[in-house]
Amino acid sequence: MMIAPVFPPFSRFAVRSYITRAHPLPHRYISTTPRLSEPPKPPTQTGEKHLSDKSFEDPTRPGLWYHFVPAPNPISKDTGAFACTLLESPPKTPDSATVLGLLPAVEGAGLRDFKENKKFLDLLHDSLERALKEGADEAITAEATQRNEGWMHINDARNIPAPERVGDADDIIASVRVEKGKVLSETYERMPSYRICTADGLTTLSEGLTKYLQKTLQQKHAEESK
User: Where do the segments described as Disordered lie (predicted)?
Assistant: First the structure.
């Protein structure tokens, strides 16, 4: 039996009292997804086999898109889901490397129900390592110059740590060695504890890294579309 999909936005803002009752977990790991005041209408039964039937942008985070994926999909045999991406164009497949992860299209689904996509995580790391090699982010280059020597963390911008403080483990994407004020991209080390999704939202990068990742995602989408 096909379950009618529900279309919530994916945001870090929520009604705290409702969350506390529904999800008695520590703040950082609870669902934080509010509801649309006027949810989009679900796709018709005849059109549910097409990934492009329902796509919309998160109203609180421009550039984050939800593309409806019918069942069966990687997280359910009988319930639709949303492929969360940074591209307006729907992914070619639900497990495309351009998809950050999947969110069940059911009432009450939130960040705690998000299923991250390992393919995207691999693409993210490859993209960031190349971006560092090419000096694509001015802020990181400036920080390396100031640090001069030692190891430097690449932090997710959704939860920037205070100056001289180490960020949360699930927000540290990777670490890289700095010598004589230069980033040694070949020393790039992934942080195993990094999570695509936390209570602060989905992966968010600095301006320079975002532009580089966007280009990488567009290239990957073009490859998968051939």
Answer: 29-56
